[in-house]
Amino acid sequence: MIPQKLTIQGLYSYQSKQTIDFTRLVESQLFGIFGTVGSGKSTILEAIAFAIYGQTERLNQQDSRNYNMMNLKSDRLLIDFECINGRSEHWRFVVEGKRNSKQFDKVNTFSRRAFRKDVDGKWEAVEEPNPDEIIGLSYDNFRRTIIIPQGKFQEFLQLGPTDRTRMLKEIFSLNRFEFSAQTAALISKEKGLAENLRGQLKPHESLDETAIAGQEALVTELQAAVRAAAEDLETLRKEQARMEAIAEKARERDALKVRLNELEAQRAETEARAEQLKSYERCVRVFELPVNTAEDLRQELKKKTEKLEGLQRDSQRLEGKLREVETELAEVRPEYEQRDARQQRADELGRILNIKEIETGLQQKSAALKKKQDEAVGLASKAEQEEQALTGVKAKLSALEENEPDRGRLADIKNWFDQRASLESALNNERKEAQKSQEQLRDKDASFQRGKDKVKAQLGLDLGEAGTPEAVLEQLRSHETALKAARTEAEHRRHELAVRVKLEDFAGELEDGKACPLCGALHHPAPLHGESADQLAKIEAELSAQDRRLAEIGKFVEGFLDLSGKLENSAANYQEKLRRVQAAEEKLRAHADIFVWPDFDSADRSTLDAAVKAADAHDREIKGLRKTRDAAEKKLREMQDQVKAVEEEVRTLQGRVTQDEADMRAAIKELKQLQWPDFGLVPSSEIEQERDKLTALIEKIAQRFTKLEENRQRFAKELDVLSGKLNEVETDLKAKTEDSERAEETLRKLVLEKGYPKLQAVQDILAQKLDTEKVREAIEAFRNTFSTVQSNLEKLETELKGQDFDAAAFDALKEHVRAKEEALNKQREDLGAAQRELERLRDNLIEKHNLEARLKISEERLGNLDTLRKLFSKSGFVEYISTVYLRQLCEAANRRFYKLTRQQLRLELAGDNKFEVRDFLNEGRLRSVKTLSGGQTFQASLCLALALAESVQSRNKSRQNFFFLDEGFGSLDRESLQTVFETLKSLRQESRVVGIISHVEELQQEIDVFLKITNDAEQGSSVKGSWEVT
């Protein structure tokens, strides 16, 4: 959270409105808020916290908070705070309140509003904002990590291990590390995965390296065949390319011959053009300049002659116009000289029209004045009646406002009931969860009993005394051990009986006189007789029954092992649910203890609902009266504005009447030729008609005379200019005629001198207008092309000498190459198929190895998951993580604490999560943090607070970290104070904004950017920036 702007008015010692713009403070990263004790420094932090959360440590609702927070000289309280949260959202929190005008110690409930700036930069109201979600911290943790009030630094250091762990769980959401249920799900999922892998391995059981080796040999054989075929094909392609090159050169030679013949046909014409170019260039060198000079003189002489003739015609025309203008001007002059007398009469006729117009307007304005005076009297009477009605409405409204219900108190009570309902709902949910967990535990117990009954039914074992799966497993394993011992004995007996049965078979085959196969005797007086075969069959049947019984015992052992884990998890889960139920019940009891409104019944919400309903009705009545008052005030203002407007119109009309009367008298005095009484009854239209005729006649004569005079002067001037031009052109024409004759004579002599028959021949040559460069380039290009074609032809004939192109052999070669390419493609296809088969076998073998490896990993993972199941049991891992977080905070704090104590002290965490201090001045021995001095305790608390703030703001991904330090620093010596200051300044490099509130002079001298707070006995607290302090 980065503060942007704070406005305070009427809060504690702040009487008048004070606005703090944090922009410059935040930009400096390290700034101070300085002032004497009691000046109002800490109020700035309290205003920020109260604006956001609506809570304050100093007062609660039972302390008449609203009254005590408001300045005793103020009737209004305002807190307007703007900030940017960790998500770069721009928020504004506004708190307003006012004092009851009739009852000084009654301050109505403060109104609270929140706004968020939208993409267009406009403030958008937010209903029921959640400050914990907006800022990312609860109120308590906000005071522990962002704005730390006086004396609160030691709180985190001195909390007990249980409370400190609970705080860390809340701040860092450590309950997200409760993975017991997830682990059980992963174990079930992993077992399914292992069975799936075993199923996928079955199709690859016969695959081994031998099959791959055989396929590799086939691929090697096919690769050798492809290489041999490719080499043969390459040889044939080279021969094909050689023959194609010969054929190409032959075609090029034939084309060059054709081109050379074409050029030979154009050669004579090109040489003729070269001679023509030579003759043209020689003629241009000699005659182009003289011919052009003579021609230019002829054209210029022609132009001069034409110009002279034109000037002579213009001179004759102007002389005629001038005579006409002078004749007409003599006719108009007498009329023009009478214009002044006519103009005076026209002017006085206009004044008489103006007098008549003033007279008419005066009559109309007098009538309007009488009407407006009557209207003003009526409006004033109505406004007085409306004002009396408004006074009654205001009196009724004031009485209602004096008895306005305490909305803040009702809101607190409503909040208490809402919280109780929420707590009751949470308790019911926890009880349901506990009941569900108990039912699950009972189901597991029932499964346990059914398992015991099944053991008794199938194995005949009575497990009545075994109350746990572990006891059952112990008896099953004991029985299994005894059964295995009995089977070993039976196996031994089976072996002895099998030998005896074999001997009995030999004895049955003995005959006197025949040798015994074992001892060789011929006489057999007492051969072996018995029933060993029957006994052997019984023993083998007994062994089969024992094997079946051992298999059944193995299945039961596996089932009870699984049931043991489930029972343990269910029992732990049930205990955790019971603990949550107890915690919810405790919260509900604690909530009931804070009900402090004796005029309401905590067991009956209807009294609150009735009070709220009455308050709503009261508010609606006030709202209606305010609406009526506002409408009446508006109507009264409108009526008063109408009265003022009408009175202003009366004054305006009165002034206009007086002015018109004065204007009329002044206009009559100005008449000289005419008399006003002579025209009093004459219609204005006749007077206006006479005046307009005179004006038109005067203007017409003046315009005609002026135009004629202007034309006369213009024609005379133009005639003078034209006469000068005529003289100039005549002189120039004579000189140009002489120059032209000399140039013609010089050109005729030059033509005869250069051997041309006459001038026309030279002019014909020059008329060709050849582009000499282009013609010369074309001739040169032709000659170069001819030479190049001839040279290339000779070169190709030399290269092809002795080389003939056989088209039939070339076609046969191409067919041979095509056949070879097809055969090679077929071999490559066979090779590709063999390689793909080899790749498939290799992939299958790799897949087999991968599946085997994955199966091994899955089996190892099952073992690890079982370890995790034990680790996460009973929230052990969450406790461990909280210890890790605490150790990280301790290490982060030591980076500053170790330096602040000049490498003498370090914070360490004991086994029970209590803080201890390692003292390097005493052989690094550990001692309790309670043995630290006051200054050392402050240093340790400061470092832990900074570390905690860094961790929280890093978790919230704030662009810029903000930390407000409200501490006097009076317990530190100068050197420690300097060390603290250097530490705070170093935080700038960590993009952290640090604000320090203190009265210590040394800090004020070290910090350049600060706010200075002063408290005047009359004016209250005021704020000035360091840039404003002179």
Automatic annotation (TrEMBL):
UniProt keyword terms in alphabetical order: Coiled coil, Exonuclease, Hydrolase, Nuclease
GO biological process: double-strand break repair
Compositional bias annotation for Basic and acidic residues: 429-451
Keyword Hydrolase part of the UniProt annotation: yes
One MF term in the entry's GO annotations: ATP hydrolysis activity
Region (Disordered): 428-451
Ranges where the Rad50/SbcC-type AAA domain occurs: 5-308
Coiled-coil boundaries: 219-328, 564-591, 615-753, 779-851
The name this protein goes by in its record: Exonuclease SbcC
Organism of origin: Cyclonatronum proteinivorum
